[in-house]
Amino acid sequence: HDLAGTVLSELAPSLERAVAAGIPRERIWIDPGIGFGKSAAESAAVLADLARLTAGPYRALCGASRKSCGGALAPNADGTLPGPLERLGGSLAALTVAVLRGAAAVRVHDVGVSRQAMLVALALRTSSAEVRSPVDARSPVERARRAGLAGGPRG
Question: Comparing C-alpha atoms, which of 79, 81, 53 is closest to residue 69?
Fold first, then answer.
C-alpha cells in the first residue's frame, strides 16, 4: 500500500485551495499526520517514505514526539507499552529519520535532547553534500539555522 501517496492525495484538495487563494507554495507546509488515523506500522511506513513528501514544492513538519505509535513499535521488555514519558528513545529515532528524510521542521516535547538529535541528523543529512572539518562545531548549528530548524535562544 502506497501510504505516502495516500497522504499526498488526502492533502491535495487543501493544498490546491491554498494555492488558488493566493498563498505562495513556499509558505505552505504539510504534516504527514504521524499517528493520526494510522496504525503504528502505517505511521512508520509514512515516516520511512517521508522523502517523497518533502521532494515536492511544500515543506514538511513532522510531529512524532511521544506518539503511541513509537511505543507500539518499541514495547517494554515485558511486552507492555511505554507511557508518553517513556517514549524518548522512539521520539528521537523518529525525529532523526524525519530530518534525514527532509523534514524542514519537527514538533517535540523534550527540546534539549531533541535539538541535539536534530543537529546530528542534519549534519548527517548535509555531510554527503560537502566535506567539512570535524572540529567545526558551529557548522551543524549554522546549517540548522539556514534550514530553519534551529531558532534563537530556545533553539
Answer: 81
Q: 115, 107 in Cβ contact below 8 A?
A: no
Which DSSP string corresponds to 3-66?
Answer: HHHHHHHHHHHHHHHHHHTT--GGG-EE---TTSSS-HHHHHHHHHTHHHHHTSSSEEEE--TT
Across residues 22-37, what is the average pLDDT? 94
- Write down the catalytic residue from 52, 66, 67, 101: 67
In the residue annotation, 67 being an active-site residue is answered as: yes
pTM: 0.79
Catalytic annotation on 107?
yes
How confident is the model at residue 13, as a pLDDT? Answer: 97
